[in-house]
Amino acid sequence: MKKIIYLFIGCCFINIGCDKKLDLVNPNLLTTSSYWKTREQAYAGCTAIYNALTVDGSYMRSFPGLTDSRGDDFKGDSPWLDLVLTGEFIIPTTSAPVFWIWRDFYLVVNRANQVIANVGKYSEAVLTMDEKNRILGQAYFLRGLAYYNLATTFKAVPVITEPVANPGEYFAATATEDVLWAQIYADLQTAETDLPISYSNVTGLDNGETGRATKGAAAGLLGKAYLYKKDYAKAGAQFEKFFTGSLKDVYGLMPDYRDNFKDINENNKESLFEVQFTEGTGTDINWCCDPAGSWKQVQAISVTYGMEGAGFSDYLPTRWIYDEYKKEKTVDGKSDPRLLVTIASYEPDDNSTKAYGRDWWNPITAIYPRKYTNDGVGNGKAFEGAAESGINYRVLRYADILLMYAEVLNETGKTAEAYPYIQQVRSRAKLPDLATTKPGMSQAEMRDQLSHERALEFAIEGQRINDLIRWGWFSDPAKLAELKTHDADFNTYKPGHEYLPIPQQELDVNKNLLPNSAN
Predict the structure, then answer these.
(1) pTM of the model
(2) Are 377 and 263 in contact (CB under 8 A)?
(3) If residue 400 lies in a helix (H) or strand (E), which one and from where to where?
(4) pLDDT > 90 fraction of the chain, expressed in percent and rounded
(5) Are 10 and 30 in contact (CB under 8 A)?
């Protein structure tokens, strides 16, 4: 089975207290008490969590866009001002896309909570212990991922770990950052323990399926979470599992960088976790709400990022990131091959004068996103079909594990040991040996080098803003000045606005919710 086909089940049940004479049960609708009985329902409930990763506020469109645009590699270029103002760090608290991100990652949390609470009660007569652990492990992983995204986007949010049982629990208070990150660590630790390395040999309804969360996904994301909070010892211990521990030889780099962003060769050896999208199902594109049965399981990054004449062109790469790719030639004297995978530009010297399979039709000096668009797979769809993309969104790649481990080594005084891990990523791009071109770098020099390496490897992958926050660039006057030279959007940055604001409509209805530094 190439991909999980996401199913929707009603995971939110409403109880209305009225005269008992009116307490009628609709036989056509499931309730909490009538659901969570069978083996099939446990699996379907788990699959419904994944479904919440494919709606507009999560990975379908808004979360990647509003995350990418806050980096120095991407900027808004849209008549929809929310997309421009986000990158300029002046997005209002009433922004609809900001609210959608909040709404949809809490949708993930809500569904995960229901699986954990209800599947946790299943007896072995219904689910074997292995099946139960796998289902719960996925729920813990997906809840941990949702809270990781909420924490890195909004800084401090409520932590809800159980289904809401009564109206008095609707208004959860903002948790401290320590509590929030402790929950992320705990969820991912549990997931790593419970999940299999793969589903190829498991016994159950998920046998042979790809796209589900695995032990490697949990181990890698847990390491990334530790690194974000600069817990280098724990982060390093997680990453070492991929080189000397149980995950050794499970993952590796794909020979062709482009294979990470096409709609073929998905769920490959470089992918630790990706969100599954597919074409050919449904009749409607869902832009705002829980999907109906007719909803297409496609991502709309393709049309949002698509160039003029093939999409909305709501965002553009910065000239800075384009120039970064040009700084260093490959060992055979060519441009970094990641440039034309990431950015669509007119490059006759590199035999690239086409876009979407057609001759270049925009100004030859213009540059556009290519990564995660249908141009990246040579798909020549007309504008009307540009949103019809089945390209999976890669949440975590092995290349990230390599560069994050190099960062841990550098930050713990082992700078010389970082070179080989960086070089694996560089060698795939046919760049010369860093140990030869820049031997004996200091810790500070290696930090700058890693910033450059990560920018080229992960441009337009929702990584850059989190890297900048983690490195403390927003509070460093020299680095902030450097960012302003990369992207004029940073000229309107104000301290604390590296995060998105807590949505105003949430603050209005929940008096226990606190604003953050961006409000």
Answers:
(1) 0.93
(2) yes
(3) helix 398-411
(4) 81
(5) yes
